[in-house]
Amino acid sequence: MPRVRLGMMAGLVVGIVSVAAAQDATKQSFETRFEKDKPFYQKLTTRVDQQLKVQGGSEVPLKHEQTFYFKWTPISQDKDGKWTAKMGIEGVQFKMDIAGQTIDFDSTNPNPSGATGNPGLTEFFKNLVGSELTITFGKGMAVEKVDGRDELQKKLSAVNPQMEAVLKSVLTDEAIKEMTDPSAGVTPAAPQAVNGTWEKKSTLSLGPIGSYERTFVYTYKGKDPE
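Structure (tokenized):
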């Protein structure tokens, strides 16, 4: 596998809150909270920096950055405290640089110049925009069930039917659950003091291409003064 460095930034307008830990006023607990019929928005950016080894031993640099804009709409909470919410993909921005060759896509731009030579890529991302999934959250706001995956697969496969098998292997139940976690894995299990750190490890499967073993390291920098 290529060497990979991943960086992730998740911006939540509302949804994740900090609560002073009762046992230690210097530490904060974090949790995800919904309010019925009060939507919130999320911006999620992923950056990948790779060195791809090709035949002959030479290395090809690859940089990849994508940003998703999500809209979350809490729908209902049952007697057991389980929430149901809808997650809609409002926009996508994508940029890839392979050895100096750049591909750009921005769903807010109806005529993205960098993607004109890649109609398949353009249509793929166009089909992502407007897609919607319905998520059921269980104990601790963990993703319990996701409805709409099959419809999403069909929508994306319509761009290229040969991609259907790949999408099925990539859009697994676990991958969809990770994608639909509104906290993006940020919330720690234990209360944190300022400058406290925690890790989250996960595996991202890319089907026949392989998989990424990922380690995310987070640091609590304190409350925003505003």
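The first helix runs from residue 119 to 128. Residues 1-16, 18-23 have pLDDT under 50 and may be disordered.
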